[in-house]
């Protein structure tokens, strides 16, 4: 991240800056080459200290840059990786491939709206739903709280704890999104009186 975003230019250690700049100038085309070059000279502990010192001194800049990354990535679709490699029996591979292809037919109509933007919005809206449920029930809505925490942590924290390929890291947010939408549909369709009439523990 320090290399990709150009943070290394503001490192207090001039030698570290020079190592990274020289590695970039070599233009090997290898991902992470400059980082590997720096760590081969400084070691992991000293390399981590360089990064931590920068983030500690430039926290506001880092947060602003990360928010910009979130906005720029908003249109990326949440999709899984295709099956590319065969392991063991081809019959197992073909079965998995057939299931995946059938799944694509079911999911295709949803493909274009299932984006990071949708995940951002649903995560924040579910926080509002959680507060409303808390007020109405006059007790903590544990399921709503759990889903809110999972949505927020999987969606937003991913940008702060990973260096790239954000969609791959947060792909697990998709089932939580569908659970929330299912609960919302249930709330709209099932009469409130019927839900209230359920014995305690069966709602």
Structural description of this entry:
The chain is mostly helical and 203 residues long. It is built from ten helices and no strands. The chain has helices at residues 14-26, 33-57, 59-72, 90-107, 116-137, 142-155, 158-161, 166-170, 173-189, 192-196. The N and C termini lie far apart (46 Å). The mean pLDDT is 77.
Order of helices and strands: HHHHHHHHHH
Largest β-sheet summary: none
Helix-strand category? mainly alpha
Choose one word for the global shape: extended
Task: Give a topology summary.
Blueprint: H1 14-26, H2 33-57, H3 59-72, H4 90-107, H5 116-137, H6 142-155, H7 158-161, H8 166-170, H9 173-189, H10 192-196
Helix pairs in contact: 1-2, 5-6, 5-9, 6-9
Give the gist of this structure.
With 203 residues, this protein is mainly alpha-helical.
Task: Based on the model shown, name its key terms.
203 residues; mainly alpha
């Amino acid at each position: 991240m320090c290399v990709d975003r150009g943070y290394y230019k503001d490192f207090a250690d001039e030698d570290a800056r020079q190592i990274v700049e020289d590695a970039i100038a070599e233009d090997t085309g290898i991902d992470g080459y400059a980082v590997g070059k720096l760590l081969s000279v400084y070691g992991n502990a000293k390399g981590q200290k360089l990064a931590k010192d920068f983030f500690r001194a430039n926290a506001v800049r880092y947060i602003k840059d990360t928010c910009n990354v979130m906005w720029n990535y908003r249109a990326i679709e949440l999709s899984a990786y295709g099956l590319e490699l065969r392991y063991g029996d081809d019959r197992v591979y073909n079965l998995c491939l057939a299931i995946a292809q059938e799944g694509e037919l079911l999911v295709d109509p949803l493909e274009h709206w299932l984006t990071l933007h949708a995940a951002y919005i649903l995560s924040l809206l579910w926080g509002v739903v959680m507060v409303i449920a808390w007020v109405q029930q006059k007790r903590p809505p544990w399921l709503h709280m759990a889903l809110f925490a999972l949505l927020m942590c999987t969606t937003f924290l991913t940008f702060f704890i990973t260096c790239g390929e954000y969609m791959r890291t947060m792909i697990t947010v998709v089932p939580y999104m569908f659970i929330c939408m299912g609960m919302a549909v249930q709330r709209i369709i099932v009469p409130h009186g019927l839900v209230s009439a359920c014995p305690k523990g069966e709602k």
